[in-house]
Amino acid sequence: MSLSTAVPTVASAADLPAPPDAEKRPHVVKAPHGAERQDEYYWLRDDERGDKAVLAYLEAENAYADAVMAPLKPLEDTLFDEIVGRIKQDDSSVPYRKHGWWYYTRFATGQDYPVYGRRRDAAGVDALSIQKANDADDFAGEEVLLDVNALAAGKDYYNVGDWEVTRDDKVLAYAEDLNGRRQYTVRFKDLETGELYPDQIKGVSPNLVWADDNRTLFYVENDPETLLTVRVKKHVLGTPVANDVLVYEEHDDSFYMHIGKTRDEKFICIGVESTVSSELRCSPAADPGEFTVLAPRERDVEYDADHHDGRWVIVTNADGAKNFKVVTAPTGSTSRKDWKDWIAHRDDVFIDGLELFDGFTAIGERSEGLERLRIVRGTPGQPGEEEYVKADEPAYSMGLSTNAEPDTELLRYGYTSMTTPDTVYELNVKTGERRMLKREPVIGYDPARYVTERLWATVRDGTRVPVSLVYRKGFERDGSAALLQYAYGSYGSSTDPGFNSTVVSLLDRGMVYAIAHIRGGQEMGRAWYDDGKLFHKKNTFTDFIDVTKFLVEQKYAAPDRVAAYGGSAGGLLMGAIANMAPDSYRVILSQVPFVDVVTTMLDPSIPLTTNEYDEWGNPEQKAYYDYMLSYSPYDNLKAQAYPAMFVGTGLWDSQVQYWEPAKYVARLRDLDTSDHIVVFRTNMEAGHGGKSGRFRRFRERAEMYAFMLHQLGVDAQEAR
Where is each Peptidase S9A N-terminal domain found (predicted)? Predict the structure, then answer.
C-alpha cells in the first residue's frame, strides 16, 4: 500500500493562515494554603456562554479549523459515507417483555433519532417475531411512546435521557435536554390520548421512578450551579410543581445520588455514592413513606443491593473484600450485622454486578482483564451449582443485557469483540441451549477479513498491562504501519475490547487499532483502579506511553506513525503524554479533555469537582496540590516540539467545561516549537457527548479521522 500519494496535501502550519492568538490577561489563581499560579487565559471562562470576546475567540478557532480541514473535506466526506454506509438505517433493538408489553427502540432510514415503541404481548408473539415485523417495516399494533425525531425537529440539540411508564401502562414520564448541559426537564404524556400534561419539572437528572399509585413520580433535582444531584422530590401528576415534596436531601457534596426500583419492584431506593463510600435507603413502592437506611455509610465501604424473593442480595467490599463479595440480608435489615457471606471474595476475580432470577443468579465478573458471567443455581445465600457462560474468542467483552423479568429460565447477555459486532444471546440455563437473538448488522463488513490479538506489555515498574489489538488480515508486522492507540484509565471505568464500526475505515487503510487497558480502569480488579488514582495517577500516563513503546518495539507500528486518542479523563491522559513523551506520537486526538486539573479542582462551584476529591485529591491540601500540579497538562506545557493535535469540545459541556481545552490550546500555541498543526473545534450547540443524533456524531468522527490520516501519511484509498 502506498502512503500519502492519495492524501490531499496540507504540509504544515506554515502553509496556513496564522492561527488565532488569544489575548493574555494577568490573573492569579490562589490556593487556600498560599500557593499561587499565573493563568493568563483565565478570562476565557464564561459561565453564561455570552461573553462576546470569548465567543469571538471560539469562532475564530472554528474558522481556522475550517481552513485547515478544507483540503481534507473530500477525505472527510469519504470517511463519513463509509461509516454511515455500514449502518442498517432502519434497524431496531431486541425487544424485551415487561408487564405484558414488548418494548424496543427502532430507527427509520435517514432519521437521526430513535422511536421508542411497544406492542402488547399475545400468543405467538416473542422477541424474534417483533424483530421480524420491525425489519419488514410492519408496525401494525405498535404503540409509539416517543418519536424523538418529531421532538427534536428544529432543534440544534435534543436528547431523551430517561423515560418510565406507570405500572398501569397509561402514563409516560420522560426527561429531555435541549443543549447538552444535562439539565433535564421532565414531561408527561397520556399514552391513551397521546396528549401532553401541562406539568413540567425543570433542572433535574435523567432518573425517574413511578410509585405504584400511577400518579406519584420520584425524581432527582440538581443544584442549579454545580449540577450536583442533591435532592429527591416527588411530584403528584396534575398538581403544581412548586408543591412537590422534598423526600431526601444529601448535604455531603462528595456524593452522587440516584433512584431506582428493586428487582421485585417492591421497593423504591435512593442510593448515594462517593468514590469510596455508598449508602442505600428504601421505601415500599406500594406506599412510599419513610426511606429506611439499609446500612449506614462508612468510609471505604461500598455496597449495592437488590431485593428479590424475600431477601436483600448485596455486592460489597466490606470487611476487606477489595474485589467485592456477595452477601445476603433479611428484608427488614438495617445494619451490616445482618449480612451473611454468600459468594466469597477472591484476589484474582473482581465482582462487577449481578442479576437475580427465580431459581438462579447471574454474576458479572472480571478475571485476567476479561469479563465473564457466572451462573449460580438455587436460592441466594445457599450453596448452588455453578457454571460459566462460554466465550468464543480470546479477547472479548461480555455482560448482562436487558433482563426485565425475573421469572424465566432465559438469561440474556451481550457479547462483542474487536472483530465481532455487538451480539445479544439468550441462554436457557436449564437446558444449556444458546440462541442468538440479534447481531448488529454492519453492511459490507466481513469479520473473516480481520484479526484480533491479546498482548501483555511489561511497563517500567514491571507491571504487565493487557493490550487488545485489531488489524486487517494480511497485515505484515514489519514496523512500517500506522497505529491508533486508545485508552481512558480513570474512575475505575474499564475499556473492554468491543467492536467499533468507525475503526473499520482505519483498518481497511492498513492501520492497527489498539486499546491499552491501563491502570486507573478496573480491568484487572480494584487494585488496578487504586494504582491509577490519587498519588498513583501518573501510572496511568506511563502505562500508556510504555504500551506505545512496546507496540513499536514489537513492530506493530512505525515509531513516527503513532496516533493517540482519548476523551474527557482520557483527554487528561492525552495532555499528560503530550508533555511527557511528545516524540512518541505523531498526532494526538483529544475530545472534551480535562486538562486544567488544579484550577478546576480548586473550584467547588464547577460540576463534578467535590464528588471527585477521592479520585484526584483535594488541592486545598498542599500534598495533593503539588502532586496534581506535577502532571496537570495545562500547567506543564513548556517550550518543546509537540505532536499535531485535534482538540474538540462542546460549548455547553457540564462535565469538562469548554474553557479548559480553550485555555490549553491558547497556551500550547505560545509554547509549541514544532510546525505541526493544532486544530481546536468547538461545537457551539453541544455538551459533553457531542452533537445529538446518530449521524451527526459520525461527521465529527470523520473530520477527526481525516486529520489523523493526513498527519500519519495514510493512503486515503481503502484496501480492497
Answer: 20-438
Residue 572 amino acid letter: L
First-to-last alpha carbon distance for the chain, in angstroms, is: 11
pLDDT (tens digit, 9 = 90+) per residue, 279-311?
999 999 999 999 999 999 999 999 999 999 999
- 135, containing H or E segment: helix 127-135
Is residue 653 within 8 A of residue 592, CB to CB? The reply is yes
CA distance 216 to 235: 6
Q: Which residues are catalytic?
A: 568, 653, 688
Nearest of 405, 406, 430, 425 to residue 414 by alpha carbon: 425
b or e along 350-388 (b: 16 or more beta carbons within 10 Å of the residue's beta carbon)? bbbebbbbeebbbbbbbeebbbbbbbbbebbbeeeeeee
Cell of 688: 459533553
Sheet holding 229-236, edge to edge: 159-165, 171-177, 184-190, 201-210, 216-222, 229-236, 245-249
User: What would the pLDDT profile of 157-182 be if each residue is shown by its tens digit?
Assistant: 899 999 999 999 999 999 999 987 77
What does the pLDDT look like over 444-479, one tens digit per residue?
999 999 999 999 999 999 999 999 999 999 999 999
- On the question of pLDDT at 675 being above 80, the answer is yes
Reduce the DSSP state of residue 675 to 3 states and report it.
coil
**Beta-carbon count within 10 A of 530 CB:** 15
Tens-place pLDDT, residues 53-81: 999 999 999 999 999 999 999 999 999 99
Tell me the H-state helices in 554-676: 569-580, 597-601, 613-616, 622-629, 659-671
For residue 342, how far is the Cα from the chain centroid? 31
Residue 409 grid coordinates? 429460565
Distance (Å, whole) CA 31 – CA 604: 12
